[in-house]
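Obj: model holo form, ligand = nicotinamide-adenine-dinucleotide.
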Amino acid sequence: MKQKIAIVGLGYVGLPLACICAKNGYDVAGFDLSNEKVDLVNLGKSPLQDEFIEENIKKYGKGIRASTNPSEVLGNANVIIVCVPTPAIGDKPDLSFVENACKTVAPVVSKETLVIIESTIYPGTVEEVVQPILETGSKLKAGEDFFLGHCPERIDPGNKKFTIDKIPRVLGCLSAKGNRKAKEFYESIIDAEITVLKSVKAAEAVKVVENTFRDVNIAFVNELAKSFEKMGIDLSEVIRGASTKPFGYMPFYPGPGVGGHCIAQDPYYLIARAQKAGFEHEFLKLAREINESMPAFSVELAEELLRKKGVSINGAKIAVLGIAYKPDVDDSRESPAIKIIKLLEEKGAVLRIFDPFIPSKSTVKTLKEAVEDADLVVLATHHSEFVKSLTADFIESKGVGAVLDLRNSLDRQSIAERGVLYKGIGR
Ligand SMILES: NC(=O)c1ccc[n+]([C@@H]2O[C@H](COP(=O)([O-])OP(=O)(O)OC[C@H]3O[C@@H](n4cnc5c(N)ncnc54)[C@H](O)[C@@H]3O)[C@@H](O)[C@H]2O)c1
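Output (holo structure tokens):
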């Protein structure tokens, strides 16, 4: 008989996972609170604008049954995987989604069930938060009667090379048997190395460390962008030069700040957990502060550019291009663009906002409409369409006054040669 896999939370993480489980012949059940998502999944359609999910749900969606009613889908699952959000409210981790999901799951956990948390969590969550909920609700003992562990999801939505099935995994369960079962399961769906760690806590720490690593390195270059600005050094050139070193250096790039459900939040999980244990992560808090300061710094650059053109920001026509937190995705969670829009609005700018991936938050329908006659174009997200279309010819033909390239992805020289004021970030 086919093994049954139940996935709790059908978002950017749960849906592609459901697809690869179905692709590998498992009987897949999905549970989510959103009627809209569940209905679309049952029609074999993707609720998210994501090429991998769109393609795979079309091919393998028949093998996925979704419901908002846990009793319809969760029963008799051999493996239950929790993929619900783990946001931060300000700098405070919010584990309520994980707690609620575990309360729903607990009654269907039976002997030999493998429960895996894939949501990003801080070290200790499985043993301190998840285990008591599951044991109380199931009246079984984790690590003995059923298996429990963590396998952090490292998916990078929009990444065509490293799709979910090609990213190596690490995992840690409460018991050796749990580790064996979990490794066997992930090896059956993932075509990359599966590394078993010695503890659940180590597996939990891996993900927050990986994302904090990105946050601090981005904060480093963002700070350099501010400092090199004052010294008149082109940071892009410096990064280009440093990147030629074949060891001991890894390029990170400055920008308007960091966004998304992971990098902008996961460091808070680590900071909060360490605080509880009596340690203050001063360095990580500073990195967060620097990255959080970048939207305001971007608006200062916008104001300066407009001043050079003799235009006041109050009443200036500004096109903001991109709302998503990274290129070619429809996810705007924690996006710096949203903070920039708010700050520009507070200063009285007249905004035309356009993101081809997020029409619901755009105020115009086309790129042309957005940039026509704009005093300033702010490139907040380097969607491929923008990078391709925003040529010097196009910008000149639309009568744009100035360009603020917050992703350093346009051709500065040719734009400037047309007499259009150009400013990048750190260059
Ligand atoms: N998005 C990414 O790129 C990414 C990458 C790696 C890890 N993660 C982590 O994976 C987790 C999920 O992130 P996501 O981006 O998929 O979030 P998401 O918001 O896209 O999806 C989560 C889904 O869970 C559902 N949900 C919420 N509470 C629920 C409950 N109690 N029961 C059932 N369903 C519930 C929501 O309706 C939603 O559809 C987070 O911990 C995140 O940090 C995300």
